[in-house]
Amino acid sequence: MLFYSFLALAIAGSAGLTYGLGWYAHPAVLWQAPLAALTLFLGLTLAFLLFFAIAALLVPMGRQQMRRSTFYGGLLRAFCGLVFPLAGIRLEVTGLEQLPTDGNYLLVCNHLSVFDPVLLIRALPRQARLSFVTKQENFDLPVVRQFMHKLQCLPLDRHDDRQALRAILQAAKQLQEQPLCMTIFPEGQTSKSGQLLPFRNGAFKIAQRAKRPVVVSVLENSRAIYHNLFRRRTRVRVRILGVVPTEDVATLRTVQIGDRAHAMMAAALQADGA
Fold this sequence. Notes:
Elements: H1 2-20, H2 32-57, H3 70-87, E1 89-94, E2 105-109, H4 116-123, E3 130-135, H5 142-150, E4 154-156, H6 161-177, E5 181-184, H7 205-210, E6 214-220, H8 224-228, E7 234-244, H9 246-251, H10 254-271
Parallel strand pairs: 1-7, 2-5, 2-6, 3-4, 3-5
Antiparallel strand pairs: 6-7
Helix pairs in contact: 1-2, 2-3, 3-4
């Protein structure tokens, strides 16, 4: 939406200049109209990106946020909406009608690339307040770390079992106390082959302790973004496959929940030949 808003403003501004400066009456200089539109569009885009960077730098450092920031969540979503068309990313989303209406659930998804979190942020409805449990290394970059704190994301050290357990317990606490969509990639890493990897089923303890349902989803073709970026369009699909209801989450073991979610993802990917 932001991309098309900027494009419309640029075209309108170019038309205004064409009329105001009398270019329409002089064919020899009429070529300046599309150049003006492009300049205005790039100017608006750069201004927004500058605002985005400044906003990130102004996020106070320190402890985890008590509540997820609506402002920074909306800003990141708008940023994705602007960058995706520029990068040639076409996002197709299906199955949203299966999402729990209260927006309070654990979302699990396969993991193909570094683009996956922002793809999910853009794919899910605006009212879905996504937070992530993500690897510790993602918190090493200052601007990224600051944004993650504002979005109530949690670092998980895959090499420290105690810290990983603390992250799981904190995620469950946040999911239980707030209307969040807590998101985790249960494979624990990106799949270099593109094939679905075995799950680390400790991720499903979040839903068990919070007494919340598990929404199972799959991403398709996000790895192709690397090769196509700014060269040609990449069609990426996000599909909501189904929900493991709270009643089943309460009675099943974590490995059983993981097996069910893994089977759902594997069947969907196999059916599409992914």
